[in-house]
Amino acid sequence: MSDTSLGKKIPVSVIVVIHTEDLRILQLERKGHTGFWQSVTGSQEAGETLAETACREVWEETGLRITADMLVDWQLSNRYEIFQQWRHRYPEGVTHNVEHLFTVCVPGNTEIAHCEDEHCNVRWLPWREAAETSFSWSNRDAIYLLAHAAGLLPIA
Question: How far apart are CA 38 and CA 15, in angstroms?
Answer without folding.
Answer: 9
